[in-house]
Design goal:
It is an enzyme of class 3 (hydrolase). Hydrolysis of 6-phosphogluconolactone to 6-phosphogluconate. Helices cover about 30% and strands about 20% of the residues. The protein is an alpha/beta fold. A seven-stranded parallel beta sheet has the order 1-10-9-6-2-3-5, with helices on both faces. A three-stranded antiparallel beta sheet has the order 4-8-7. Bound molecules: ligand LXAUTJHC.
Length: about 230
């Protein structure tokens, strides 16, 4: 299921989305004393992160993590962790806890097992999930071109899996669909005409192995609010 919210500019979208996220996180902290949020990387969320970082939220009770990460060092320009630290975890949001899904040098099965245990104890299920979408319809690092795509959609999947995309750089780590779909509030944040075209293509069929984002748009597994601006 989905609802589509369109905005006249990226700045207006970022402002509205930041307030929407703030409301959900505040409500979660009021109800259970803590909240968790998984954000996406890439180029789209920078402006949103800037707005969120200035909001007066109970950040010390909020844990932030990533829906997916490229297995690169923090110093790399492709590190989603670095993007989040430089653009979100500053000002008021500096008080938040960050759960690192990229830990250590190699993504071994032992590292994955430890991360899965920690994710279950510290962040899952997410109160807020902010997804992005690639031109190929990938979301998080559930890539249609990867050998691991079936594993990413297995109903009994572990929280995290290693992914090697055939058409994008870097080994990845990604939350699986089974765990992403349990998020209380799911947002798809996309901008520009080309992403709108990809979205329209995603809406015409429910084959999520061809376009993984479809799993968040069709059927009852997720209820996704799409935020789009030119
Ligand atoms: O590789 C990734 O790409 C997607 C989309 O990124 P964008 O630059 O087109 O906004 C992103 O959602 C994902 O987190 C990232 O690892």
């Amino acid at each position: 299921m989905y609802t589509l919210n369109e905005f006249e500019s990226r700045d207006v979208l970022d402002e509205k989305l930041a307030h929407h996220i703030a409301d959900v996180l505040t409500q979660a902290v009021n109800q259970k004393g803590k909240a968790s949020m998984a954000v996406s990387g890439g180029s789209t969320p920078k402006g949103l992160f800037e707005k969120l970082s200035n909001m007066p939220l109970p950040w010390s009770n909020i844990t932030v993590t990533l829906a997916d990460e490229r297995w690169v060092d923090f110093e790399s320009k492709d590190s989603n962790t670095r993007l989040v630290h430089e653009n979100l975890l500053k000002d008021n949001a500096k008080a938040a806890t960050f759960f690192h899904i990229k830990q250590g040098e190699k993504l071994t099965s032992d590292v994955l097992a430890t991360l899965n245990e920690q994710a279950l104890a510290q962040v899952l299920p997410f109160d807020v999930l902010i997804l992005g979408m690639g031109e190929d319809g990938h979301t998080a690092s559930l890539f249609p071109c990867s050998a691991e795509i079936k594993q990413g959609f297995a109903p009994d999947a572990q929280p995290l899996l290693a992914v090697q995309p055939a058409t994008a750089p870097h080994q990845r780590i990604s939350f699986s669909f089974a765990h992403l779909a349990q998020s209380k509030s799911t947002i798809l944040h996309i901008c520009g005409d080309s992403k709108k075209n990809v979205l329209e293509h995603a809406l015409v069929s429910d084959d999520h192995f061809e376009m993984p984002i479809r799993a968040f748009l069709h059927g009852d597994a997720a209820d996704t609010s799409i935020f789009w601006a030119q």
